[in-house]
Amino acid sequence: MLTKSATASTGKKKAGGKKTRSAEEASRQAALAAARVDAVRALRQSYTAQARLFLREPAPAVSTQIDRAAADGVDVDKLVLTKLSLTASDLWALGTAFESYAALTTLTLCMIPLDDKMVAALASFVTAHPALTTLSLVDTHLGPGAAAHLASCVPHSALTALHIDYNSLGSAAWHHFLLALIPPAESDACESCALAVVRVREAAEAAAAAAAKTAAIAALPPPPPKPAPLVEKAKKGAKGKGTKAKKKTPAKVEVVPPPPPPPSKEDRRAARPHTTLARLSCKFAGMDEEVGDAIGRLLAGNSSIKDLDLSGNRLGPRGLLAVMEGLRSNTVLETLNVSANGVRAAAAFAGSPIDANAALRAATAGITAVRRLSRGNLAATSAAAPRGGIAKVRIPKASTAAPPPPAPAAPAATLALPPDTSTAATDAESDPAPPVAPTPPPPPGAAAAVAAALDGLCALISDPDAVSRLASVDLRHNHVGDDGAARILDALKARATAMAGAAGGTGPVPVTVYVSERTPAAVYAKLHDVNRAMEAKRRLMGGKKKKKGGVTGKKKVVRK
């Protein structure tokens, strides 16, 4: 049994050990902070030197962000450039300086026009950087030629998120870029994939040759034993003493092999997988129905993209159908946003330009009546009413002259004003109905395409055994029709029933589908309630996963 003095000494030793560890940790953190500041300062000097090497001055926005990071003692993990006038030399200098700075993870270029040479410089930097995970090119005026450079740099890069919002590349360019994200076969590989295949094949051949050489050496018979070395007798010296001459052994020279050369850009590109993209955002990018086919092929062949944002494009019913067909064999995608893509069901085409104009005139009839009333009341004391319908009343100026004598009183019959017959004739001229754009006729097969797309979506939602991992679909600002909204509601109810009947943790994942507010009020309210329940179930499942992993658990109670 330990005495009180022994227990106290043990406690002091433990406290001393904790203090020592905390002091070591503090010194380690201080050393890391000092090394971080030194790296940022070296980056500042390298960027200045590279910019002047390309006969350019350092961009003030870049220098300011580096200096701020050095003053705060943090890494330059994010670089945001907005509304700047840059050239290809500026981007070459930027890429050369930041190529070996592994702390940079996010690069954002917003509202900066980029030509093909600038995109080529940016593509070289993205390919070579080992840790750049997010690239945002927002409203950078990318042209069709930029698709080729993006298609060559995004595969085999470290990017996990790519934003190409507000850039209209064109149908052919989008088709080329999206298909480059699909891992091709060895016989139909892109340039980078072919390089990777060649590197792997060369490594396999070198390993096989080394193994064969080792086996051949092991199969050789052992060498014969060497004869004993002859000892030469030395001649007698002047003193008559005989000495034996020792055989001189050559000094051993250690051959140090040269260090292996650093991996080149091609080697680093070949060592990476085809693509690691997890999020692709193409909002308001001018995609049409032809691009929808490429998106469907991308979803069917890509196995890394989990979040796809296509809002604000012109995919239309056929483009949506191609996307839904690609989702049948996709097992990775979780979030799909196709809002505001011009998807209209057959019910959305009801009506005509004449009906729309009549409805607008009926809605503005009250405003026209008010204008007529204001003109009739002020006709006797005002000038002619302007086009806007607001009368201008003239107020006489004050005068010091004697007032004129009063006019003789007129009989009451002469005071009656004639009826205003001009207002009825001029209403159509003074208050014309604003023009209403005629409703475009439905494209051939639009209703059938929307119905087929909704059939595919409802099949994915209602089937508990589907391979799809889709968890959220945004269809807002599209006209799916009353029948389409009701079918989506039935599919969500079937999904909820399958989730309730499954065992804990083994059922299908919750799915939320957001539709336009133009659906019937009763159906929209039920959809809203089902989506809220699905979101709550998703949060609950996420909390259970964290608790199972040990992130959120009960605290251990220590009794004194």
What structural class do you assign from the helix and strand content?
mainly alpha
Mean pLDDT value: 77
Q: Please bin the fraction of helical residues.
A: 40-55%
Shape: extended
Q: List the uncertain runs.
A: 234-239, 349-356, 378-391, 412-417, 421-431, 550-560
Radius of gyration: 40 Å
Order of helices and strands: HHEHEHEHEHHHEHEHEHHHHEHEH
Strand content: 5-15%
User: Tally of extended strands?
Assistant: 9
Q: Main sheet: which strands, in order across? A: 1-2-3-4-5-6-7-8-9
- Look at the structure and name the CATH superfamily of the domain at 287-348 and 443-549: Ribonuclease Inhibitor
Major sheet, described briefly?
9 strands, parallel
Give me some keywords for this one.
560 residues, mainly alpha, Leucine-rich repeat, LRR (right-handed beta-alpha superhelix), nine-stranded parallel β-sheet, 9 strands, extended, disordered C terminus
Protein described:
The protein is mainly α. It has a domain of 169 residues: Leucine-rich repeat, LRR (right-handed beta-alpha superhelix) (Alpha-Beta Horseshoe), CATH 3.80.10. Helices cover 48% and strands 6% of the residues. The chain contains 16 helices and 9 strands. A 9-stranded parallel sheet has the order 1-2-3-4-5-6-7-8-9. Helix 4 links the parallel strand 2 and strand 3. Helix 1 runs antiparallel to helix 3. The longest helix is centred in the N-terminal third of the chain and has 50 residues. It starts with a helix and ends in an 11-residue tail after the last helix.
